Amino acid sequence: MIALPAILLFLVIAIFPLVSSIGTSLYDQSLLRPERTFVGFENYLDVWDEFVARVGTTLTFATLATIFPVVLGVSLAILLNARIRGRNLLRGALMLPWLLPGVVVSFLWAWIFNDSYGVLNHLLTMVGLPEVSMLGNPTGAMAAVVIAKTWNSFPWIMVVALAVLQTLPAEQIEAATIDGATRSQRFRYISLPHIVGPVALVAVLEFIYNFGNFDTIFVMTGGGPGDSTTTLAVSLYQLAFGSYELGKASAMGVLWLILLAIISSAYLLLNRRLEKR
Amino acid sequence: MSRGRDIGEAIVRPRLTIPGRITLTLLALFGLLPVYWLTATAFMKKEDVFAVDRPLFPVDPTLENITGFFQNPLLLQNLANSVIVSTGTAVLAVIVGSLMAYSLSKFRYRGRSPIMFMFLIGQLIPGALLLISLYLMLSSAGLLYTYTGLIISFTTFTLPLTVFLLKGIIDGLPDDILEAAKVDGLSRLKTMFQIVFPLIVPGLITAAMFAFMRGWSDLLFALTLAGPAKQTLPAGLTQAFIHEGTADWPALMAASLITSLPLAIIFILLQRYFVSGLASGAVKG
């Protein structure tokens, strides 16, 4: 009984909307007119090409914006696990990029990358390097949003990796040392296998979050230049609230949902395997 | 004894080599310099920021960007909306979530695993997928562009988080306490309010603050479901600055700093809960 409010609330605000978008996707429905007409799978045919193109962009963004924070976060965790002065202070300060709201992160990097007045070009000019136009061209814009997202999410991975490093089997490492294992051997055969599982889990989770990312891209590039950074989330938003095509946007959402189900099962499988260990 | 532990500690936690130190410095600079630039720009004069010989630190610091924020009625309204909606989200998520967590933790019933599974999956659903249906639902319920509608919508992504966080904490309570309460003749509801909740007050506060932070940071729902009058800071700032074309960067950085401040304060208060909360994988902003 006491669980009822949560279940009801969650069914109504999360599960029902997912199911009901299947319904909406079968209608020609717009925010501009009250009535809607049944069109069957027509919306799906209309958005298919757009969907395929957006999946490509989304995959590029999500993959890059996962690999970089993972590499950065794990490296920092290993370095911060060493005995250095001011370790706790540094660790706390490095949480800041994660604390800032996504919108603030995006404003900040858009400002850093600003063509005319941005600090990046200012610094490049100072050391005699040519200026770069990050947000003005497709490759630069993709790099820019990946950098911003990397900066935003590495602290989370760093904290998880640090927590895992706290649980390293100290006796095993000592024993290996006594048996003459070198530092890199100990890392390769004891530490690394120990952290791979949990890090893989957060990596998949990070990938799933990045796949649905909206803030970073919408604020920094608005999906441009052209449609070079238009991911599924941005595209769906533009279709629904820019062109008011609710039916087509819902069709796009349903296709996305199918894809998400496949990716999520990878996460759930990994989660289950790690829990068994 | 302690000497032995020191040696063990030295092996597991070696000193950093020179290349290690250099790498750490470079990575730390990547992490921290942007934060410096955010803060520095917020205190710079507009003419300095757009000058040819731009300084890299506020040579002639000014508060005009900060005071500008507090003199802008639109941004003040956004700030007020953010406080109301995020607080509401935190309260709703904790009340509903703690009941759910208590039930999942201390009772065995049919459908318990599917419910847990549902909340686990719930964490993975991107907001954009719910957007259109939420919009239509709120619209037909007359809740579009209202605080209530926003709070209910924000609870989609805060509820799974609160449930798992609190379940972890309630799992740690010994069953003896609950059995003693049962022997004393307390009803389930009374046990919950009189025994369980007082014991997990720190956990309830932590969960509330995590929910607050996520509500505070949301852009997508605020942009579409809030309307101009109930818009929270992230959406308000996006429309006020970015969409006008030419951005007043120092003012935007000042506004960003003000938007981030509550989260920094919460982080300082909650620091010791962060690692366990984050590491459990249940928490992500």
How would you describe this structure to a colleague?
- The complex is a heterodimer of chains A (277) and B (285).
- Chain A has 277 residues and is an all-alpha fold.
- Helix content of chain A is 74%, strand content 1%.
- In chain A, α7 (138-166) crosses α9 (183-211).
- Chain A is globular.
- Chain B contains 15 helices and no strands.
- Chain B is mostly helical and 285 residues long.
- The interface between A and B is large, with 95 and 95 residues.
Shape of chain B: globular
- Looking at how many chains there are and whether they match, the oligomeric state comes to heterodimer
Helix proportion of residues of chain A, in percent?
over 70%
What would you call the shape of chain A? globular
How would you spell out the order of helices and strands of chain B?
HHHHHHHHHHHHHHH
Question: How would a crystallographer describe the biggest sheet of chain A?
Answer: 2 strands, antiparallel
Order of helices and strands of chain A: HEEHHHHHHHHHHH
Care to count the β-strands of chain B?
0
Measured by DSSP, the beta-strand proportion of chain A falls in under 5%
Class computed from helices, strands and strand pairing of chain A: mainly alpha
Q: Would you summarize the structure shown here?
A:
Chain A contains twelve helices and two strands, in the order αββααααααααααα. Chain A is mostly helical and 277 residues long. Chain A has a two-stranded antiparallel ribbon with strand order 1-2.
